[in-house]
Amino acid sequence: MTSNLAEQFLLDPDVVFLNHGSFGACPKPVFEDYQRWQLKLERQPVAFLDSRRGLEANLRAARLALAAELGSAPENIAQVTNATTGLNIALQSLPLAEGDEILTTDHEYSALEKTLVFVARRTGARIVVVKVPMPFVSAEAFHEAVLAGITPRTRVLFLSHITSPTALLFPIERLIAEARARGIFSVIDGAHTPGHIPLSLDALGADVYSGNCHKWMMSPKGSAFLHVRPDLQTMIDPLVVSHGWTADNKEPGVRGPLGNSAFIDEIEMQGTRDPSPWLAVPSAIAFRHAHDWWRVAAECRNLAQETAERVRGQFGLDALSSPEFSAPQMVAIPIPPCDPLAIHDALLADYGIEIPVFAWQDRHIARLSCQGYNTRGQMDVLVEALAELFGLRQRHRKLNTA
């Protein structure tokens, strides 16, 4: 890894931070830009938050930069606080009725699983969960499993692009096309995707896609987006009705109070809130370009896969997937049966390692994130710490409950 990249971040040097996937980490120049926007807000709040005096122009500049990075038009992207919010907006707007089916997988993020239950209870729809064949080594097997779950009642296909618990990169392109052909809404959870893999939203063709900028794009927390196909935007209702709402929003071509589409104004114009995280997104994109981040990401992928192989090797456990279906910079590493919280707490207290450890279905997992500030030496610390905690180095044997 490039040795000076850690100096670009604000992370505690006493912590081996291997959990970028949960909340991200913001580089110093991006954080400084974020604080610059916050200072402008506090120096003259009225002027800053007045759309006629610059706010709308600033919001649009961020929207333009993000749209160019993600391969879409700025008119298709609305600012939200996080991907969970964006997906709630979309899922709660869908015209579902009693007996309709929402098709999803057993690898989804728990907050969105709850959202699906909420929507199903309110509408009378039914959730159908497909069990993904594991280990994940075949796109064809994945496609067949999901397609087998489609029935004449299927109205929504809800999939993660990169899964949270298992760090898998789902090959979703064919399924999105198939959903379109069958008149099924495709809703994609892209929380981990922007900045993690190259992404062209228009080419992907999902009806709805929501992603975070604060994770792998490395913008400040509170910056995310909701992308909706132009022909479906009039279907979207805001979660909060505020100044951006127009009673005529279901008519195509109706503009919102700020002159954007009603889709954008209804979601973005919702009373007093700090837009600084969103306004710093162009700075995060510029930082990535300045540091050739796709090259950095490729180095991270190699280091993550190598580390996962070392850990699995010492425990004699199989991988959850072949490398091509693992998220490039994030890998779910199987570990022996244990008390996950005890292992997590011991890693942090005794070794200074911050990494999520949890049980998922019948497996126990340490989910490793590798970002540009991580080093091979830190990976050595993780490998040795896990060996000691599980008794391979005769230490902390009591934590292993196998």
UniProtKB/TrEMBL annotation:
<dbReference type="InterPro" id="IPR000192">
    <property type="entry name" value="Aminotrans_V_dom"/>
</dbReference>
<dbReference type="Pfam" id="PF00266">
    <property type="entry name" value="Aminotran_5"/>
</dbReference>
<dbReference type="InterPro" id="IPR015421">
    <property type="entry name" value="PyrdxlP-dep_Trfase_major"/>
</dbReference>
<keyword id="KW-0663">Pyridoxal phosphate</keyword>
<dbReference type="InterPro" id="IPR015424">
    <property type="entry name" value="PyrdxlP-dep_Trfase"/>
</dbReference>
<dbReference type="InterPro" id="IPR015422">
    <property type="entry name" value="PyrdxlP-dep_Trfase_small"/>
</dbReference>
<keyword id="KW-0413">Isomerase</keyword>
<feature type="domain" description="Aminotransferase class V">
    <location>
        <begin position="57"/>
        <end position="355"/>
    </location>
</feature>
<protein>
    <submittedName>
        <fullName>Isopenicillin-N epimerase</fullName>
        <ecNumber>5.1.1.17</ecNumber>
    </submittedName>
</protein>
<dbReference type="GO" id="GO:0045439">
    <property type="term" value="F:isopenicillin-N epimerase activity"/>
</dbReference>
